[in-house]
């Protein structure tokens, strides 16, 4: 494999979305594992952990984000996140697929994005970041942010590590 260039990039708008937009209703006191098979651990954040999962009926691969509920404010914040994600149905933004609530946690079933972080990609010594790629990446980021703003939603803590790719490309 040689260095990656902008000629190797498939624009993400050329990729079909993983699922059609859905109306998500939080399922109360139902087990996530009745509808989803939990697979490998993907990561841990400040409020919970994320696992890969597979919907039993469709075999869709998705991500299950488990938010621990220790206080009532945790529950309120989780429901705020769900409402925001429901409002933000756009191809440049992470999509919500399903949601579950129990006494101890709230689980968000979301689009699985496996292409890696923008930051990791641009610091990879085998990756050639061209001016054209910068233009494409910035255009796609701005499309997502512009849509958020058009819905009167702002992101207060945007960082380069939060931008992720839908796919990994290989050069042969």
TrEMBL record:
- Gene3D superfamilies xrefs: Phosphorylase Kinase, domain 1 (3.30.200.20), Transferase(Phosphotransferase) domain 1 (1.10.510.10)
Q: Which GO terms describe its molecular function?
A: ATP binding; protein serine/threonine kinase activity
Determine if Nucleotide-binding is one of this entry's keywords. yes
The record's Gene Ontology biological-process terms are: intracellular signal transduction; positive regulation of apoptotic process
- Domain Protein kinase intervals: 36-172
Instruction: Respond yes or no to whether keyword Transferase is given for this record.
Output: yes
Q: Which residues form the signal peptide?
A: none
- Which GO cellular component term is one of those annotated? nucleus
Which SMART domains does the annotation name?
S_TKc
- PROSITE patterns according to UniProt: PROTEIN_KINASE_ATP, PROTEIN_KINASE_DOM
What are the record keywords, sorted? Answer: ATP-binding, Kinase, Nucleotide-binding, Serine/threonine-protein kinase, Transferase
Residues recorded as binding ATP, renumbered to this chain, are 65
Show the Pfam families listed in the entry. Pkinase
Membrane-spanning ranges: none
Q: Which InterPro entries match?
A: Kinase-like_dom_sf, Prot_kinase_dom, Protein_kinase_ATP_BS
PANTHER family, from UniProt? MYOSIN LIGHT CHAIN KINASE, SMOOTH MUSCLE, SERINE/THREONINE-PROTEIN KINASE 17
What is the protein name stated in its UniProt record? Answer: Protein kinase domain-containing protein
* Species the sequence originates in: Rotaria socialis
């Amino acid at each position: 494999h040689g260095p990656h260039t902008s000629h190797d990039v498939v624009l993400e708008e050329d990729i079909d979305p993983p699922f059609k937009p859905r109306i998500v209703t939080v399922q109360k006191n139902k087990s996530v594992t009745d509808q989803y098979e939990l697979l490998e651990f993907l990561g841990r954040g400040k409020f919970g952990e994320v696992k890969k999962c597979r919907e039993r009926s469709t075999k869709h691969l998705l991500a299950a984000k488990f938010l621990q509920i220790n206080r009532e404010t945790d529950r309120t914040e989780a429901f705020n996140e769900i409402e925001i994600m429901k409002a933000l149905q756009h191809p440049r933004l992470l999509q919500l697929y399903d949601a579950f609530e129990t006494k101890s946690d709230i689980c968000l079933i979301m689009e699985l994005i496996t292409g890696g972080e923008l930051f990791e990609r641009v610091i990879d010594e085998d990756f050639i970041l061209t001016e054209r790629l910068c233009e494409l990446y910035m255009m796609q980021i701005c499309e997502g942010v512009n849509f958020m703003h058009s819905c009167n939603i702002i992101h207060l803590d945007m960082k380069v590590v939060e931008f992720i790719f839908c796919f990994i490309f290989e050069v042969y």
